[in-house]
TrEMBL record:
All residue ranges annotated as the Beta-ketoacyl-[acyl-carrier-protein] synthase III C-terminal domain in the record: 233-321
Pfam family, one: ACP_syn_III_C
Gene, per the UniProt record: fabH
Lineage summary: Bacteria, Pseudomonadati, Pseudomonadota, Gammaproteobacteria, Alteromonadales
Subcellular location, record wording: Cytoplasm
Record's function text: Catalyzes the condensation reaction of fatty acid synthesis by the addition to an acyl acceptor of two carbons from malonyl-ACP. Catalyzes the first condensation reaction which initiates fatty acid synthesis and may therefore play a role in governing the total rate of fatty acid production. Possesses both acetoacetyl-ACP synthase and acetyl transacylase activities. Its substrate specificity determines the biosynthesis of branched-chain and/or straight-chain of fatty acids.
Name recorded for this polypeptide: Beta-ketoacyl-[acyl-carrier-protein] synthase III
Pathway: Lipid metabolism; fatty acid biosynthesis
Known partners and oligomeric status: Homodimer.
Region annotation (ACP-binding) ranges: 249-253
Annotated GO CC locations: cytoplasm
Residue stretches making up the Beta-ketoacyl-[acyl-carrier-protein] synthase III N-terminal domain: 106-183
Catalytic activity: malonyl-[ACP] + acetyl-CoA + H(+) = 3-oxobutanoyl-[ACP] + CO2 + CoA
Amino acid sequence: MKIYAEITGWGKCLPPAIMTNDDLATFLDTSDEWIRTRTGIEERRVSYVGTSKLATVAARNALAAAGLDANDLDLIIVGTCTPDEIIPNVASAVQRDLGAKYAAAFDLNAACSSFLYGMHYATQAIRTGAHKKVLIIGAERLTRILDWTKRESAVLFGDGAGAMVLEATTEECGLLASHVTCDADARDVLALEFGMSFDRFGFDGIMPFNFVGQEIFKRAVKGMNMAVEKVFAETGLTTDDIDSLIPHQANKRLIDYLAKMCNVPEEKTVINIQKYGNTSSATLPIAFCEAVEQGIVKPGDTIVSAVFGGGLTCGAGIIKWGQRVTPIRDNNETLPSNGQTALDLILPVYEGTRKAWEKREHE
């Protein structure tokens, strides 16, 4: 008897503070028109809490949608490149805060590809019988690591979290095929110089963020194209069998390219980058959650997803949705406002980084 991994729960967490393009233009040499025409982004969210808190709210919503108690879980995977600390992992904080006493918990860092990587390995774990109920989360607080003096990267990213519950079933659904890979020759074109090589004693307030946009775009197109072709070949499906496209939300031009490649019309392509920017590992689960809420995903639908991220990691998957598209319990828990605007949260970071650059230039 073949075992599949059905998506039974879904949830998200979006910080209440919104930073618009016009807000950015108050301290960066940019404009709403400049950002929109190049990226499709209109606004993004800024969190006042850490990644684990965002992840926990999204997880609670996913558990509510699945109608599960936290103690039903036997594995928690958190995809993130912005953990609260190096040790311990974010997943252990989520496990503690949910009260999921019987779950193993670990983090996975494939940057923006992390959630699909998590689905790939969680599905294999369920298919082999190693686990039966798995919680996957993509969560990021990217606004705390950005260099807010650099227009080319500062305008792209935002904070948020999304989650899914996968459960073992004999019904043919869930992630039917997936392909994940890594183009390590280009790992330096998207990089943050922070880690065990980081000199904490010589830290001057600057975390250099290397972002070579054109090279990333070129390699992303090539990598995702190959991954999508592989999952179509594995399943025997064609673009005619696809009901919707739910891609990583990195750039509107890239999403349009994927839609054309997969022969999916605009009305069946999930695009929310205009509201949230690129939330890295969180973009995929947030987009899935909204697609279900908006009725884009219907019972039994076949969905194609593609992602790329730092590494350069890449992947694609074909997902067959189950028969339920309504949550069993209310899954609309939100993060309350702390009274601070996005500018309140970001301007001190911007000023500190600007002064650090000035100091470095005069040394």
